[in-house]
Amino acid sequence: ARPLVESGGGSVQLGGSLRLACSVSEFTNRSPCMGWFRQAPGKEREGVAAFLHGYGSTYYADDVKGRFTISQDLPTNTLYLQMNSLKPEDPGMYYCASGIPLESLSRSFWCTLGRGHEYSSWGQGTQVTVSS
Q: Taking a C-beta distance cutoff of 8 angstroms, is the pair 81, 19 a contact?
């Protein structure tokens, strides 16, 4: 499994911004889905955003669309999550993960979010706190 190392978490005021980074040993077509997930205390893990390596497709949870941006920097093997306009529901431990896409009958591919069942490699997480 590829080691994934998250960084960039911290405390930010409501409405503020943070950029999370995930250092990846390499982006590969064997596990092309790169996702960000979060888990708040007492809640289940939920997918926030995903990126399909090799296609550039991005996927977002409804409650972060327009506020969060996932991106990939190939030269540095880094996955980013730019988080703007942070809300009270955004805090939690944020995890970077890699996994496989789902495939339709028409041979199209996409990355899932949800609970992250298609993701097999996970980082240790970085904590995000939002204060009012």
A: yes
